[in-house]
């Protein structure tokens, strides 16, 4: 048997790849190129030899800062392109390779140019907004003044001063106008006009009323044009206002309130001729500014478009350079400061590829000294690396979500590829629903190449990543649905006629009295005649419950068998003798025997009560079984199995801790006397000797650990077997829900002759099927299958205490690295 096992071919997924710790001594002149080539290869995980240093104390901290600054500039340019609603080219134009220093200079120039253009554009937009507001105020306030002109006798027109500066109109403030000489009749009715945000208008009016104690008249009108904020680029709704008041004190208060609320005040002449003249001048200035703004936007978009052609390439280049310098910071300089020393893990199969990449780096950098690459002895456990493809990767991720396998530990993903979708299908079995899932999986597979290049949402990304899991789940659901003979809960005579017929020709008692079997059993799956019969639920309950126990015992035995392969692989004979053997005996003495009884009962058609048999196997093992006896010699066999189960518990608990203590005592016996023959110098040159790694053996800790493990297994054997009954429970729930929706919604609606009621019933049935049965039930069955694998299956052999192999690779760099 052992020779047969040794001759089995190795499996890529069964054990993680063999790893080795390597050391690299790289000349300083070829270090950058060597790390770059290793990043392209992606098969070496560097160890951080400067973990005790902060990022600012490392050798290449300045280069990392420069790359981070370039990343910031590239992000700024990218934001500007997106704000301008331009698309950066995903397929950049071909251009000669550019050096990092030259790129740094170019990016600084581009950033300065864009900042300057943004500043000029903002100033022009601010001027344009002021002119536009002035024009609106002239139009709206002029209407107020015309309507109130007949009532004002002693009103004095406010002087205005309109002049040109930097291609836009500016107006002097009212304070300056009031301070000019030549003013008379300061007691007349006066006004202030301006414009304010619509959201502040109500509070503004209330504050003016309180400040002037009601001695003012407030008129307002909405602005006909929306004004664009030059900073936020958002459209702002504004309101034009005119405040009539009397007195210098009221004027001062109103101006301060306007300033506090961010209202812009503009002087409006009462003379209609002057109003029209100023309006014409403002309109001319607005037209000139619009032309200038459009030209500036075209120039800016042209510059952004030319940069966008190279943006993706530049971002990838900077991202790679930063990753290279981050990796170089994990290396140490030797004493001569001419070479960098690095350590890392790599798979054994990749040593040749790594050496070839290092030789190419030496040649390309014209270095006089080659790169030294050699293996080292490691004390700590190596990382875990499984070579997966797009099919097996999703199943490996399911296992890794529980815990990463230890180095060379048996990998549950090998069996999860089949057992996970199968157990899901046992709970979800309906070949109509399975076809719906299959269509969804086929759509994802058909658009695989397109979706793999797109940035998906979290839900779609998870769904797309598990497309092959979904495919297998749908195929197994169709298979289990054919066994259950359910198509949206409706049975079909797919594989021939039923084995049962009615007692009489009218079939009036078919579902009350029962049917008569008249030919051989239905060839595949459940006979369709069970559907709707009075014994349907007892029959299907019995079938699915017993099937759940059988599947559970088989999978738990598989887990225990894998623990044997683990123990054998790591040469742990103690685990084989005092863990694997008693566990197999205990589980199969109880639940293996129960599975045997189920199979015998199915084969013989016996009416024995298995509940009674298992309960009294513990309570009264010597009593006569009577009508519950399934085969000859059952009672003595039960007594033997019960004794074996009782013996297996101390077998698991006691021998292993005592044997470990004896082995430890023998291993270190007399070791203390060996130190007498050595000197202090000998101790210094042998840091890896057994004396240095001598650890105190804590017997109580080992014994408590073994006791916990034994109790967990004994109790778990019962609870885990019961846990597999969820296969029966969820399958029953899915079937009954589907039946309710079919009979109480679709058939009920179809019983009416009204087409509207039928369409409504069909819509409700489709909605319930899609959202409850195909989404909620799928998620429920998925989570329960996940629990059965993580808890019931993997706890029999899987420790999951390893850590992933994370090589330095440019392929793993994402935009988040910026």
From TrEMBL:
Any one GO biological process: vacuolar acidification
Transmembrane segments: 422-445, 466-484, 547-567, 579-600, 637-654, 755-776
Coiled-coil boundaries: 98-127
Keywords: Coiled coil, Hydrogen ion transport, Ion transport, Membrane, Transmembrane, Transmembrane helix, Transport
Pfam families in the cross-refs: V_ATPase_I
Location(s), subcellular: Membrane
Keyword Transmembrane among UniProt keywords: yes
Keyword Transmembrane helix: yes
Membrane topology: Multi-pass membrane protein
Cellular component GO terms held in the UniProt record: vacuolar proton-transporting V-type ATPase, V0 domain
GO molecular-function term, one example from the UniProt record: ATPase binding
Family the UniProt entry places it in: Belongs to the V-ATPase 116 kDa subunit family.
Function: Essential component of the vacuolar proton pump (V-ATPase), a multimeric enzyme that catalyzes the translocation of protons across the membranes. Required for assembly and activity of the V-ATPase.
PANTHER family listed in its UniProt record: V-TYPE PROTON ATPASE SUBUNIT A1, VACUOLAR PROTON ATPASES
The protein, known as: V-type proton ATPase subunit a
Biological source species: Lithocarpus litseifolius
């Amino acid at each position: 048997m052992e020779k047969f096992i040794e001759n089995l071919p190795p499996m890529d997924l069964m054990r993680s790849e063999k790893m080795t710790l390597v050391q690299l001594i790289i000349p300083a002149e070829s270090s950058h190129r060597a790390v770059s080539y290793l990043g392209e290869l992606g098969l070496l995980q560097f160890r951080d030899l400067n973990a005790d240093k902060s990022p600012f104390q490392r050798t290449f901290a300045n280069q990392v800062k420069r790359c981070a600054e370039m990343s910031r500039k590239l992000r700024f340019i990218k934001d500007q392109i997106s704000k301008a609603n331009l698309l950066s080219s995903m397929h950049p134009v071909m251009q000669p390779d550019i050096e990092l220093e030259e790129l740094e200079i170019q990016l600084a120039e581009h950033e300065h140019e864009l900042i300057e253009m943004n500043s000029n554009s903002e100033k022009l937009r601010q001027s344009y907004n002021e002119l536009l507001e002035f024009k609106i105020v002239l139009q709206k306030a002029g209407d107020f003044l015309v309507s109130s002109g007949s009532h004002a006798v002693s009103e004095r027109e406010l002087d205005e001063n309109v002049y040109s500066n930097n291609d836009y109109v500016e107006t002097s403030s009212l304070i300056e106008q009031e301070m000019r000489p030549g003013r008379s009749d300061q007691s007349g009715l006066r006004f202030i006009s301006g414009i304010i945000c619509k959201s502040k208008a109500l509070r503004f009016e209330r504050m003016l009323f309180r400040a002037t104690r009601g001695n003012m008249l407030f008129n307002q009108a909405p602005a006909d044009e929306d004004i664009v904020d030059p900073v936020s680029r958002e459209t702002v709704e504004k309101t034009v206002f005119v405040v009539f008041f009397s007195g210098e004190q009221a004027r001062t208060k109103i101006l301060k309130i306007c300033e506090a609320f961010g209202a812009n005040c503009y002087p409006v002449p009462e003379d209609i001729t002057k109003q029209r003249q100023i309006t014409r001048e403002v309109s001319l200035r607005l037209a000139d500014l619009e032309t200038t703004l459009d030209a500036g936007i075209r120039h800016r978009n042209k510059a952004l478009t030319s940069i966008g052609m190279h943006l993706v390439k530049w971002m990838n280049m900077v991202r790679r350079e930063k990753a290279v310098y981050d990796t170089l910071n994990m290396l140490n300089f030797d004493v001569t400061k001419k070479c960098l020393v690095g350590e890392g893990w790599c798979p054994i199969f990749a040593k040749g590829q790594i050496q070839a990449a290092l030789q190419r780096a030496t040649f390309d950098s014209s270095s006089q000294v080659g790169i030294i690459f050699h293996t080292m002895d490691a004390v700590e456990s190596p990382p875990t690396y499984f070579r997966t493809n797009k099919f097996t990767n999703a199943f490996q991720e399911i296992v890794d979500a529980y815990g990463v396998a230890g180095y060379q530990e048996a990998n549950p993903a090998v069996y999860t590829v089949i057992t996970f979708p199968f157990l899901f299908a046992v709970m979800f079995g309906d070949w109509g629903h399975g076809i719906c899932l299959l269509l969804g999986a086929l759509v994802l597979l058909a658009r695989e190449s397109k979706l793999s290049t797109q940035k998906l949402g979290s839900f779609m990304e998870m769904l797309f990543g598990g497309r092959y899991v979904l495919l297998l789940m749908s195929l197994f659901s169709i298979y289990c649905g054919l066994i259950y003979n359910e198509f949206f809960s409706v049975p079909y005579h797919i594989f021939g006629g039923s084995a049962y017929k009615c007692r009489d020709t009218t079939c009036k008692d078919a579902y009350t009295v029962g049917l008569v079997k008249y030919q051989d059993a239905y060839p595949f799956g459940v006979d369709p005649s069970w559907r709707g019969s009075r014994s349907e639920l007892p029959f299907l309950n019995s079938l699915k419950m017993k099937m759940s126990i059988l599947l559970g015992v088989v999978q738990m035995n598989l887990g225990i068998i894998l623990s044997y392969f683990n123990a054998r692989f790591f040469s742990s004979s103690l685990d084989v003798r005092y863990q694997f053997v008693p566990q197999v005996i205990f589980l199969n003495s109880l639940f293996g025997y129960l599975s045997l009884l189920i199979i015998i009962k199915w084969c013989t058609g016996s009416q024995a009560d298995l509940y009674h048999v298992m309960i009294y196997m513990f309570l009264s093992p010597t009593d006569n079984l009577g009508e519950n006896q399934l085969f000859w010699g059952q009672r003595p066999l039960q007594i033997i199995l019960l004794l074996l189960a009782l013996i297996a518990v101390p077998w698991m608990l006691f021998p292993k801790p005592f044997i470990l203590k004896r082995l430890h005592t023998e291993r270190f016996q007399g070791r203390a006397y060996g130190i007498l023959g050595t000197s202090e110098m000998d101790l210094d040159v042998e840091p890896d000797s057994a004396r240095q790694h001598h650890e105190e053996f804590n017997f109580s800790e080992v014994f408590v650990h073994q006791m916990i493990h034994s109790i967990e297994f004994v109790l778990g054997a019962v609870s885990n077997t019961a846990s597999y009954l969820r296969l029966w429970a969820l399958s029953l729930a899915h079937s009954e829900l589907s039946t309710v929706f079919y009979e109480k919604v679709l058939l009920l609606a179809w019983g009416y002759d009204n087409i509207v009621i039928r369409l409504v019933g069909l819509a409700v049935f489709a909605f319930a099927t899609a959202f409850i049965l195909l989404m909620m039930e799928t998620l429920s069955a998925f989570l329960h299958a996940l629990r059965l694998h993580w808890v019931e299956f993997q706890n029999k052999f899987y420790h999951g205490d390893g850590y992933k192999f994370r090589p330095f690779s440019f392929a793993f760099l994402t935009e988040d690295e910026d």
